[in-house]
Amino acid sequence: MDYREKRYLKKLVFGDNKTNFTTTQYCKLAKINRNSFYQKYISTAGFFLNILERDLLSCTFGTDDADCSMALENMLKMVYKEWKLYFWIYQKTKHEEHQMMKAQLIGVMKKIISEYANEMNGISNKNLKKVAEGIYDHLLSLILHNCKKSFLDAYSSLESYIPEIEGHRCSYFYKK
Question: Smallest Cα–Cα separation from 63: which of 102, 113, 21?
Answer without folding.
Answer: 113
